[in-house]
Amino acid sequence: MRSIKYGVMTSVFLACMSLFGGGFGLFEHSTKALGMGGAFVARADNATAIYFNPAGITQLEGLSWALTTSPIQPNVSLTDTGGNQYKVDSSLTVIPSLYLTYQLSDQFWLGVGSYVPFGLATKMEENWAGRYNSHNADASSLNLNLNLAYKVNDHLSLAFGLDAQMFDVTLEQKILPSAIVYSQREGIMAGLLAQGMDAVTAEYVFNTQFLAPSAELKDINQEISGDKTCLGYNLALHYKPNDFVSMGVSYRSSVDYDIDGKAKYRDVTQGFIFPFESIFYDAPGLAKIELPSFLYFGFAYFPNEKLCFEIDAWQSGWSTYDVLDVFIENGLQSVQTIKNWDDVWMFRAGCEYVINDSWYATLGYLYDESPIPDEHMDFTLPASDRDVYSFGIGFTKGNYCFEASYGYLKLQDRHVEARPSEFILEMDIEGDVNLYSIGVTYKK
User: Fold this and answer.
1) Residue 166 region, left (φ>0) first, then alpha (ψ -120 to 50), else beta?
2) Model confidence over 210-257: pLDDT tens digits?
3) What are residue 427's DSSP bridge partners?
4) In degrees rounded to 5, what are phi and psi of residue 10?
């Protein structure tokens, strides 16, 4: 039997790919930075610099650390052409981060960070209209980042780091039995003709004994899951020529992933005239892919001791993600999905105002492009370009700073054209996300 080319979502990677910049990449790695629209690459003056620009940790004396907790609550809906609205589950997701830096000498600093670089929870009702593309996508990740920073002189610092990234993904979708039968029409018809039937009779038998009965069968549920730990590296530069200006550049490498996953099925009809059980059975799988590199630029201006303005530009090189090849050791075998994603930019701007020796306030804005072309949008992550408006406050007591920030993320309305062969329905996507963050930092 030839391989099924049905649009089945077979990769434990599919959700992960949507999660970085422009999809649902997470930037809630610092409470203060969230209040500044995530613009912190040039500033980088507390322990959360481990994520934004590790070269900035040379500004910190002795021991420094930061702990943040960032709850995220989405409110996203999809509306079909009939006016039916489908809500994405709005459960709260909490994103933790922990950073530690230590000054080894006058020239060397060590930094360690543990944070969540991406995450996803797109859960719909199992019987929703787009269930044949996706009804559940859940991903969690953890990145451990070790950095060594070198202070070249009073103005310039460099850093190099290694990343160990762990993640776990589960994807679920429904499979329409009649679509599977129809996809095998050519082979079934050839078998009927080989039995001596004429074309008209074979067509009648196919329609009445195969296709029509299969339309009465229960949907098959497919669950794909996998986990992996991969290694990468990062480079960073921080330059502060005077008291009024600072600049930063940070680079995170592309990472090659070789995923071992598994496929599980339920509600597979047994003993039907078409052998579903010989195609959809629990089996291991494999996917190979390279995630792109990420490059961050930042420029900060300090007009006086109370004010700071920063603008950042972040690039995600998603044009490398043009095709996804997956192999599952059951009747599906090899499945290829065309992606053709785009390179995208994220632009951030923020400011801080020091009210007095104890209090500061921040404001920020962020614009994030989606890398997913209209012709390849799916329901794993119903996403679009994003605008984020944020503010925050901080209270300093001795060596400690207690911080709180809020961001309002607005998804730009997006129209998805129908692609019947992939079970993509015509939909309008709209929604917003509430971003909260509280944190405490310590520095001498």
Assistant:
1) beta
2) 999 999 999 999 998 888 888 999 999 999 999 999 999 999 998 877
3) 80, 416
4) -110, 5
How many Cα neighbours within 13 Å face the side chain of 159?
35
Mean model confidence pLDDT for the chain: 89
Tell me whether residue 161 is exposed, middle or buried, using C-beta atoms within 10 angstroms of its C-beta: 0 to 12, 13 to 18, 19 or more.
buried
Cα 253 from chain centroid (whole Å): 16
Is beta strand 245-252 parallel, antiparallel or unpaired with respect to 294-301? antiparallel
Q: Tens digits of per-residue pLDDT, 119-175?
A: 667 788 888 988 988 888 887 788 999 999 999 999 999 999 999 988 777 889 999
Parse the chain into domains and list their residue ranges: 14-173+223-442, 177-218
Residue in the block written with tokens 């209270």: 395
Q: In which element (H, E) is residue 51 found?
A: helix 49-52
Helix (H, G, I), strand (E, B) or coil at 429: strand
Q: Which of 8, 424, 6, 1 is nearest to 224 (CA)?
A: 8
Structure-model confidence comparison of residues 4 and 216, the more confident one = 216
Half-sphere exposure of 180 (CA within 13 A, CB side): 29
Angle at 72 between CA 24 and CA 44, to 5 degrees: 75
Structural contact between residues 115 and 98, judged by C-beta atoms closer than 8 angstroms:
yes
Q: Is 324 left (phi over 0), alpha (psi -120 to 50) or beta?
A: beta
Q: Under DSSP, is residue 117 helix (H, G, I), strand (E, B) or coil?
A: coil
Distance CA 404, CA 31 (A): 6
H helices present in 145-258, as ranges: 177-183, 185-194, 199-205, 212-214
Cα separation, 26 vs 433, whole angstroms: 12
Residue 280: pLDDT band with limits 50, 70, 90: very high
Tokens (6 digits) for 373 = 């072309």
Buried b (16+ CB within 10 A) or exposed e, 351-385: bbebeeeeebebbbbbebbbbbeeebbbbbbbbbe
Query: To which residue do tokens 């959360």 refer?
Result: 48
Rounded CA-CA distance 259/228 in Å is 6
Q: Is 259 helix (H, G, I), strand (E, B) or coil?
A: strand
Instruction: Name the region of 340 (left: φ>0; alpha: ψ -120 to 50; beta: rest).
Output: left
Provide the sign of the torsion angle of the four alpha carbons 109, 50, 13, 312, taken in this order: negative
Determine the Cα–Cα distance for residues 128 and 360; give it in Å rounded to an integer: 47
Cβ contact 134:120 at 8 Å: no
Q: What is the DSSP letter of 39?
A: -
- 8 A C-beta contact, residue 241 and residue 222: no
CB-based burial, 262-275: b 16+ in 10 Å, e otherwise: ebebeebbeeeebe
SS3 156: strand
CATH topology of domain 14-173+223-442: Porin (2.40.160)
